[in-house]
Write a structure and sequence with these properties.
This protein is α/β, with parallel strands linked by helices. It has two domains: about 120 residues, 3-Layer(aba) Sandwich (Rossmann fold), CATH 3.40.50; about 230 residues, Rossmann fold, CATH 3.40.50. About 30% of the residues lie in helices and about 15% in strands. The chain is built from 13 helices and 13 strands. The strands form three sheets. The protein has a six-stranded parallel beta sheet with strand order 8-7-6-9-10-11, with helices on both faces. It is globular.
């Protein structure tokens, strides 16, 4: 009889954290294909991800507000089996509890105390290891997109190059390129690739979309559509359809965003517009290209320049993402590389490390999820 495993990953809502849980589940599945694996996720994250992961039995959305109000009487808790063979919790719960808001900490404390394991309960990669389920660190995530979603995006067919772009992630501050830059980039790329078609995606509505591009306005969308006749408006087409769109396209162009991480899960290369606080760290053995900023403070999660902090406080664009500093020519170079069949994941890694070194960034600030890529050594 197959053993059951519950992955507790109730953290903040951005889709990148849901992907952490998805890949964690994959690691346990790769080590033991007979495991029946379920996941607890923050209900405000796109829990639909579980629908495209064949190695996941069920995703249980946890309403953080409801659990804080009702505790174990919350419906989202009552409907989950109490006993499992294994229960695995995000290691941040032990290693970095300060990263949890009090409401999240309360929910995780309750989950850890309430749910019981017949064999082992603990944090991933943390002792005690005796009787813990096996875990494979180096694993690749690939989604299985439903047939209906694939059919829904066929209406966007194009005989030439198909480029999806996400103009802004979920951050409420101006750390993304503005609409004019996107329009200029589309014009320049179209001159180089006349048969290209662009697909602009993201989420504006809060209902049904828990990861939204709040800094990109309806006026921004309208401006890009009015100035470029080869752009399809694919905002708010539904989360699973957006995954189908990523798979349908040849390249995704996007700044740092959890949603952008999903492109590699359907084997679509990500042309990353790198900048601001966080480096890209999820490539999933899919080729990629990073348009890197000139600022050697990047990534600035350890301390942003005063000028950029002042710009953010004033509602202005940070330096590395403004129209003068974000290189459209580098975007074109990236497209040329990513459309070259000979440009592989290994070549992507080597070029990335070469460019990081050439630009004199602090390599200690860069990392890779689960060690698939070691920035200072290349592919391990």
């Amino acid at each position: 009889m197959s053993k059951t495993l519950l992955v507790n990953w109730v953290y903040y809502k951005p889709v990148g954290h849901a992907l952490e849980a998805i890949q964690t589940a994959r690691g346990f599945y790769e080590a033991d294909n007979d495991l029946k694996i379920s996941i607890l996720l923050n209900s405000e994250t796109p829990c639909e991800l579980g629908e495209v992961c064949s190695w996941i039995e069920k995703v249980y959305p946890i309403d953080v507000i409801q659990v804080n109000e009702l505790g174990l009487k919350a419906d989202c808790i009552k409907n989950i089996p109490k006993e499992w063979d294994y229960i695995v919790t995000d290691e941040r719960y032990v290693n970095n509890p300060g990263s949890y808001a009090e409401s999240l900490k309360y929910v995780n404390d309750l989950i850890v105390d309430y749910f019981q394991a017949r064999i082992w309960k603990g944090c991933r990669l943390q002792p005690p290891f005796e009787n813990a389920p096996e875990y494979k660190v180096d694993n690749v995530v690939r989604f299985q997109i439903p047939f209906n979603a694939k059919k829904d995006v066929e209406k966007y067919a194009n005989t030439g190059l198909k480029i999806c772009f996400l103009p802004a992630g979920a951050s409420p501050v101006n750390i993304y390129p503005n609409a004019q830059w996107w329009s200029d980039m589309i014009s320049a790329v179209t001159k180089r690739f006349p048969d290209v078609k662009f697909y602009m995606t993201g989420a504006k509505s809060r209902a049904g979309n828990r990861s939204a591009s709040y800094t990109f306005s309806e006026a921004d969308i309208s401006m890009i559509l009015s100035k470029n006749d080869n752009v399809e408006n694919c905002f708010d087409i539904g989360f699973i359809n957006q995954l189908a769109l990523l798979e349908f396209c040849d390249i995704l162009i996007a700044p740092h965003s959890g949603f952008a991480f999903l492109a590699s899960c359907v084997n679509t290369p990500w042309l990353s517009l790198s900048g601001a606080s966080w480096p890209e760290y999820f490539y999933n053995r899919t080729k990629f290209y990073n348009v890197l900023p000139q600022c050697t403070d990047y990534p600035c999660y350890t301390g942003m320049k005063e000028e950029c902090e002042s710009n953010i406080n004033a509602g202005k664009m940070i330096e590395c993402m403004n129209n003068e500093n974000l290189s459209i020519q580098d975007v074109i170079k990236g497209i040329e590389l990513l459309t070259d069949p000979d440009f592989s994941f290994k070549k992507s890694v080597n070029l990335y490390v070469e460019n990081l070194t050439k630009n004199a960034y602090d390599l200690n600030k860069f990392w890779s999820l689960h060690g698939i890529l070691n920035i200072t050594k290349g592919i391990e």
